[in-house]
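Final report, closing paragraph on structural work. Over the funding period we assembled a curated collection of sequence-structure pairs, and we close with a single example.
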Amino acid sequence: NLINLLLTEPGERINEPNFGVGLKKILFEQNPNIEILKEKINNQIEFYLPLISLSNVNINFVDDEHKLYILISYIFNLDNSTDAIQLNFNSSYIPRGNG
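Its predicted structure, as stored:
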């Protein structure tokens, strides 16, 4: 459920226009605001995944290479166990000239 929430673009899900973080879109933004992204991830988890609580988000964006690394640590609220997920995005687009 967490991966689905992170990868879904807002407006993509029928009858849930606010659902989703839309991480893939961030890959092509110029200078994304990491703090706003962290806040958005936290807000989405709090609203749509009440069984877990966010404990840490580590985001590393390499602009000139269009790479995005996200490590999310969270706690299961029922038993206080912990887990983490890491998502790595890499744009393989290489512009080619005529010839």
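The longest strand covers residues 52-62. Confidence is low (pLDDT under 50) at residues 94-99. We thank the funder for supporting this effort.
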